[in-house]
Amino acid sequence: MKPSTEPCTARGEQRRSQILDAATGCFAREGFHGTSIATISKAAAMSTGHIYHFFASKEAIIAALIERKLAQSLELVSHFENAEDVFQAMLERVDQGLQERTDPAQAALELEILAEAARNPRVAALVREADAIRRERLMGVVRSARQNRTSRDTGNTSDKEDDSAAVTEVVIALFEGLTARAVNNPTLERTALAQLLRQVLRALL
Questions:
Q1: Each residue's pLDDT tens digit, 57-104
Q2: Are 168 and 139 in contact (CB under 8 A)?
């Protein structure tokens, strides 16, 4: 599904991103149902007609935000896939992942989208589709990281029964759980958390 009716020009993409950035702030502050197209229009400094030229509805804007988040996630996965040492690359990105997941605005947006998915089957389908795509790619990264560590430590690439799917779920849960923690405890100690997250990754992988 492509929510935009604007041709994929550089100017069109710039306008589209401008709307999505404005919507991100509005949804985070006022919630999905508390935000109107007029509110997004004001935040984006565009007419409502211009907003509708790109997105047919607020739901279409949420769909685009889900797509944008997926693209960002897959870009990170690609970084891991192309790394010479996959495991080390994952450890090195812990701090950045922690900062992103505990950013107040991003946390509010993530929870708002999940809340909408819980009551809107169409949004739920988009969220689950994006999760399945990301999860499948990340599972390949987890498998590669474990195989590389096994080969390096023992010289043997064979491994015990493959539980990469379960490990991937735990890794995702660790970082996605930080989103809720950032709302419940805004003063959480990020430095200590980063150290512990690396220890957990070492144990899991």
A1: 999 999 999 999 999 999 999 999 999 999 999 999 999 999 999 998
A2: yes
* Exposed / middle / buried, residue 160 (Cβ in 10 Å: 0-12, 13-18, 19+): exposed
Reading phi first (left if > 0) and then psi (alpha if -120 to 50, else beta), residue 153 is in alpha
DSSP string, 52-108: HHH-SSHHHHHHHHHHHHHHHHHHHHHHHHT-SSHHHHHHHTHHHHHHHHT-HHHHH
Full residue range of the structural domain in which residue 23 is found: 1-56
Same domain, 105 and 34: no
pTM of the model: 0.86
In this structure, which amino acid lies at residue 74?
Answer: L
**Domain shared by 139 and 79, yes or no:** yes
Q: How many domains does the chain have?
A: 2
* ∠ Cα 179 182 183 (to 5°): 95
> Is there a single domain that holds both residue 79 and residue 13?
no
Residue 77 shares a structural domain with residue 159? yes
Q: Are 84 and 160 spatial neighbours (Cβ–Cβ below 8 Å)?
A: no
